[in-house]
Amino acid sequence: MKLLTDIAIEHVYHGKGASAPTKYVMHPFENSTGDGKGRYEVIRDLAGDGKAKKRSAHLTKAELSELYARGLHDQFGIRLRLRPAGQDYPAAPPGKRVSSRHITPGSDFEKQVRIFDTKRPVSAGLREQLFRLSVGI
To answer: Where does the source fall among the domains of life (predicted)?
Structure first.
C-alpha cells in the first residue's frame, strides 16, 4: 500500500476496544484491489429522503491534485480515506475532511496543486468521479 505522505493530519482514535485514546498521523492511501486499485478514495455524504447516504469515488493522483487546486474538496465537503504510516489502524480507515493547509509545503503534491491551470475545463476523469459523488460541474 502506497501512502501519499505529502498530506498528513493528526487523528485520535477513541474506539470501543481502546483502553485510552490513541494518536495517529494519517495519510491518503492508494487502494490495492478492485476498481479503485492505484487510486485514492474520496467520500461525500448526501442528505435526502430522511436518510444519510454516502457516495465514494476513486481518484488518480492527478485528479486529486486538480480537486485541491480547484478547491472542490472544501466546496462540496469531500473527504479522503486515510491510514497511518507504519502501523495498523484498529478499525476501518476513516474518511476525514483534509484542508489544503495539511499539504506539506514544497512537496511534490503541493507543487502539482500550485501549478495546475484552473482556467482549463475540469478534466473528463475528475468530472466522471465527481458525478459518482453527486457533484454536477
So the answer is: Bacteria
